[in-house]
Amino acid sequence: MHGEDKMGQVATVTSKSMVSIPARIRERYGIREGSKLEFIESDEGVLLIPVRSLGELRGAFKAHEKLVREGIRELEREHRKEARS
After folding, report:
1. How far is CA 53 from the centre of its chain?
2. Whole-angstrom Cα distance, residue 6 to residue 21?
3. pTM of the shown model
């Protein structure tokens, strides 16, 4: 991240314990109406992690398909080699 990317965003908790997520954060992490978020407690504070559905993940690894297929082929070669030993 660049220095300006680490700047914090401030939101106010409403009387109903609701918080508006700043637009820049929503856009950057693909958070939209209906998105689920997980709250994770850590020593540094609370982390807010978008939870992706299977539909959102479909195609996420398409760009790495060639690398994944080559890895599978390599594992198959090693397995055959070990089976012959």
Report:
1. 11
2. 16
3. 0.52
